Each structure stands twice: as structure tokens, then as C-alpha cells.
Amino acid sequence: MPIADTSVYLIRGVGPNQDEMPPVWPGPVEGDIRGRTDMDGWFVFKDVPPGIYYMAIWAPLDYVIVEKQEGSLNKPLSLKVQGDQMLDLGLMAIYWP
Fold first, then answer.
1. Contact 37, 4 (CB under 8 A)
2. d(C-alpha 20, C-alpha 83), whole Å
3. What's the CA gap between 35 and 10, in Å, rounded?
4. How is residue 30 annotated by DSSP?
5. pLDDT at 37 (0 to 100)
6. How far from the centroid of its chain's Cα atoms is residue 13's Cα?
7. Rounded-to-integer distance, Cα 30 and Cα 53, Å
8. How far, in Å, CA of 14 to CA of 30, rounded?
9. Least enclosed by CB within 10 Å: which of 17, 81, 82, 90?
10. DSSP annotation of 95
């Protein structure tokens, strides 16, 4: 079911290549980009600076990291954003407590 009216964050990667998952406590002070889902669970980020990002969604009492399946493992989904680019992530499924 859609997750309505909750915060969604793009968290910039860290490390030498800025492609490592950072500690997860999203917020504007850290430079993270915040969005919010509408009543149907849709969200849009506009004017995102180029870079590698990870996505966190606010769940009751904690953040959930959006993952992708690689073989038999789930790994954090990384998004490489380039200038003047539109990414359609399609449907994303997460564990919701």
C-alpha cells in the first residue's frame, strides 16, 4: 500500500568517491534533501545537485533505507544524479513497520 504523507530524504554519499553509505540521520544541517510523499505515496525531488545519493524514508520511530536486491543480498540503493537529468525510480517497495 502507498506510504502517504511521510518524509523522504536524499542523503549524499561519503568517502573518497562520495559513493559510500553515510550514517543515517538525515536532515538539512547535513545537506540532505528532504521531500514528502503525497496522499498516494508519490514524491518528486527537483534541482538536485549532481552526486551520488542514498534514499531514506521516515518510518515510525526510525528511518528505512531504500534497498535494491543484488543476487541474494539487499544493498542500499545508490542514485547517481547528473545535471539536467530525470530519474524515474518507478515503484519502490520497503519494509514498513
1. yes
2. 21
3. 8
4. G
5. 94
6. 11
7. 13
8. 12
9. 90
10. -
- 51 phi, psi to nearest 5 deg: 155, -175
**Hey, what's the cell of 80?**
547517481
* Three-state DSSP state, 5: coil
pLDDT digits (tens, 9 = 90+) for 11-45: 999 899 988 888 776 666 567 899 999 999 999 99
The pLDDT tens digits for 54-66 are: 999 988 888 888 8
Cβ-Cβ contacts under 8 Å for 88 (sequence gap 6 or more): none
**Alpha carbon distance 93, 13 (integer Å):** 22
Q: Is the pTM of this model over 0.90?
A: no
Residue position matching grid coordinates 543484488: 70
